[in-house]
Amino acid sequence: MRAAVDRNIRRDWISAERSLFNRCDSYTTENLMMFPGGRIEVRRFSWSRPIESVWETGKGCYLFNMSLSNHEPTTTWTHVETGLRQQMTGRKRLTFVPPGQKIASSFGAGNSRSVCCMLDAKLVEAFLTEAPRWNWSQSLLDDCANVGGTEIEWLLRRMYREVRQPDFATPEVLGTLARQVGIEVVRRFKLRQSESGQRTRGLASWRMRLIRERLASGKPLPDLEELAALCNVTVRHLTRAFRIETGRTLGRYIDDVMVERARALLQARTPVVKVARLLGYSHARAFASAFRRTTGVTPSEIKPEQRR
After folding, report:
1. Could you tell me the pTM of the whole model?
2. What is the pLDDT of residue 200?
3. CA torsion, points 118, 120, 126, 130, in degrees to nearest 10?
4. How far apart (Å, rounded) are the C-alpha atoms in residues 284 and 271?
5. 95 touches 62 (CB < 8 A)
């Protein structure tokens, strides 16, 4: 029997009671692959007695479980926070759980072969201005328990075939399919903000946070290409979305951070050559030119703070 804790599962993806694994008679991983933005596992397990367990998706995980068996034991899902229940009969099925949800499940003795796919929440939320709020109802629980027959199922089956028979650039293919799954989740569960509500073309809040954290890190200033790679978008998309979100250009924002950091260093009597190096400029002359262009004064005109 495979160990219950898999080192390839990120802590913010999923946690499950050990009882779920300890009560299984066998648990075999047929295929397992990590790819950009996710993880997919083909697994087979069996159990000779009823099992009740509780498991929870982390804030960074969208979870899909697709049955490959012709017959599955009847399962009861309970959404722990609301007490809503859904009973799934013994047939092939595809279930979906958004981030931050706790599910209690119970099922009778049986066996199963399935595909478990965990996607980084950013793959879905990249298309939204903020993380969606899930307002749970019986209809939503029913929809999550019955995602079969949709484009999501077609894409997951394509991912299953790819991981079963790996070929050239399989992880990249899986990453591309996973991004398509993210789009289909937005469509299926109507996560798009309405035109009368929040802006839909601005920069997602998690991308804004990454940019701010990078600029506040104290490292040499990044260029647009680095920030675009950090946010997993093109430079063109990043600069356009940033301007829509903030009303100013990203280049100007970087210049403002440069001036703020440079002024503090200069007032602390840091030599101009060292300030240029700390900010990532190859020459002091290039730094001085950028500083004067932004502020209208040269670095040498910044007076040190008076020591008390």
Report:
1. 0.63
2. 45
3. 100
4. 10
5. no
